[in-house]
Design brief:
Helices cover about 45% and strands about 10% of the residues. It is α/β, with parallel strands linked by helices. The strands form five sheets. The protein has a four-stranded parallel sheet with strand order 4-3-9-10, sandwiched between helices. A four-stranded antiparallel sheet has the order 5-6-7-8. Strands 12-11-13 form a three-stranded mixed sheet, covered by helices on one side. Strand 14 and strand 15 form a beta hairpin. The relative contact order is 0.11. Bound molecules: adenosine monophosphate (AMP) and zinc ion. Adenosine monophosphate binds next to helix 1 and strand 9.
């Protein structure tokens, strides 16, 4: 089964295929604006895109996917923050970029192949703006800014279905002083000393010095790193309009070819029924949640519990449920391996193909998770379940978990490192103490036999650095 994904532009499921003869799938995902911490709403989008990237790699091969995700390190919000903090732009954006990278790593998100920052591609943006001016799609305003002339692009509004009338309403407050039409948007913003501090670059020919508008960065960086037509462009639902609509207008008017063959927008994470957002301040960061004792892996799992094309309400209860589900999976997988001496490095069986197909069918993550649990529940180490079968089934489980980016050893590590021990009956702790002593004495056969006794009694023993932890096995 091929990967099918909803296309926001054509409004239907479409198969994902690379267009270029080199067979490389070109994928651009709009990245974070680095003026504040990314919150777990942002990470819902990035985790969903990470699953997509991993699925594409499974489908086309690891070296046949090129994934670009930018860093917006110059725009109104980042510059606004320099005013608030009275610090240089670079200091602010570097700090939040570093935290973003640390959070991405903790959430097990793969690094994109390129992570261009807008400030590193000023020349490319200026070049594109000059082409747009030459072709009559852009004009210089009285203050030296440059605007895109929306009426020059007949297809404007194709993605978001905005009508001219709505455009006027949406954009009526934005910088309308220098534009010919309120629906036009800025490609280049003339320098304003009172707002911009030392943030300025030489402008396009005929324009004032200043800085790029927000939308042009993605058009320019996508062109520079992936070419004029790409296979897939993604982001959260709020980016559909105006950001992606404007990207299409800029790129197609400049390059004269379609910009992206496929558009995908995932829906937002909500808190108490409203969108989690930096400006509302109603957000959790990953750090807020790990400080409460939750693992980053549980946060990742919680972000994946809803269908990506439906909004998902975040609660600490859902994070608790995610933690329990993950721990059960991790402990039972470990017990299966230990009891049956299974070797998951063998070729995978077809047991979890249903889960993979759910992902191939419009990234239906909750259906995939459901399929994983229903299959996994049938993998009891009962009579007749051979070591070979267990090995191949666990290999298949590991393959689908790899696509989901769910790292079960990290879950076990977190459990083992957690401070509060689970209460266990004295006969169980006595067995565990004996096993720990055997292991310390390097009597591995003895330790193994005692662990089997513990598993049979319904307990898993997790070895930490300086001690062990007991967890009840469910089911
Ligand atoms: P920003 O840092 O605001 O540029 O946003 C980075 C990414 O996070 C974009 O793809 C946004 O669409 C996405 N995003 C923003 N808020 C949320 C949210 N509450 N839930 C999911 N994604 C979001
Ligand atoms: Zn973008």
């Amino acid at each position: 089964m091929a990967i099918h994904l909803y296309d926001s532009l054509e409004r239907k499921l479409k198969e994902l295929q690379p267009a270029q003869p080199d067979g490389v799938f070109r994928f651009y995902n709009c990245g974070p604006t680095v003026y504040a911490p990314a919150h777990i709403g942002n990470f819902r989008t990035f985790v969903i895109n990470d699953v997509l990237r991993r699925l594409l790699e499974l489908e086309f091969g690891k070296d046949k996917v090129k994934h670009v995700r930018n860093l917006t390190d110059v725009d109104d919000r980042t510059i606004g923050q320099t005013q608030v903090e009275k610090r240089p732009l670079g200091e602010i954006t570097e700090k939040w970029t570093d935290l973003f990278h640390a959070d991405c790593a903790a959430l097990n998100c793969l690094r994109p192949h390129h992570e261009p920052a807008a400030t590193g591609y000023i020349k490319e943006q200026v070049n594109m703006i000059e082409v747009l001016m030459q072709k009559g799609h852009a004009y210089r305003a009285a203050d030296g800014s440059v605007y895109f002339k929306v009426s020059s692009f007949a297809d404007y509004g194709r993605l978001s279905r905005v009508k001219e009338r709505e455009l006027l309403v949406t954009d009526a407050t934005a910088d309308s002083d220098h534009k010919n039409s309120v629906s036009d948007f800025a490609l280049w913003k003339a320098y304003k000393p009172e707002e911009d501090g030392d943030v300025k670059w030489p402008g396009p020919r005929g324009a004032a010095e200043g800085r790029p508008g927000w939308h042009i960065e993605c058009s320019a960086m996508s062109k520079a790193l992936l070419g004029d037509t790409i296979d897939l462009h993604t982001g959260g639902e709020d980016l559909e309009f105006p950001h992606h609509e404007n990207e299409i207008a800029q790129s197609e008017c400049c390059n004269g070819v379609p910009f992206s063959r496929h558009w995908y927008h995932s829906k937002h994470l909500l808190v108490d029924g409203t969108t989690m957002s930096k400006s509302r301040g109603n957000y959790y960061t990953l750090g807020d949640l790990t400080a409460k004792g939750y693992s980053a892996m549980a946060v990742r799992y919680a972000l994946l519990m809803g269908h990506p094309r439906k909004q998902l309400n975040f609660t600490l209860n859902s994070l608790h449920a995610a933690t329990e589900a993950l721990e059960e999976l991790a402990l039972r997988r470990q017990a299966l391996i230990q009891d049956l001496k299974a070797d998951p490095s063998v070729p995978p069986s077809s047991r979890f193909n249903g889960a993979l197909d759910a992902l191939r069918n419009d990234l239906n993550v909750p259906a995939a998770l459901g399929a994983i649990f229903s299959q996994f529940n049938q993998m009891k180490p009962s009579l007749g379940y051979s070591r070979e079968q267990a090995s191949a089934d666990i290999a298949a489980l590991d393959r689908v978990l790899l696509v989901l980016g769910v790292d079960l050893p990290a879950v076990l590590q977190h459990l083992a490192d957690e401070s509060a021990p689970t209460e266990a009956p004295t006969e169980i702790t006595a067995l565990a103490d004996k096993r720990w002593a055997a292991k310390q004495a390097k009597d591995f056969a003895g330790a193994d036999a005692l662990r089997k006794e513990l598993t049979a009694a319904g307990w898993a023993m997790l070895d930490g650095k300086n001690g062990y932890r007991l967890e009840r096995l469910k089911g």
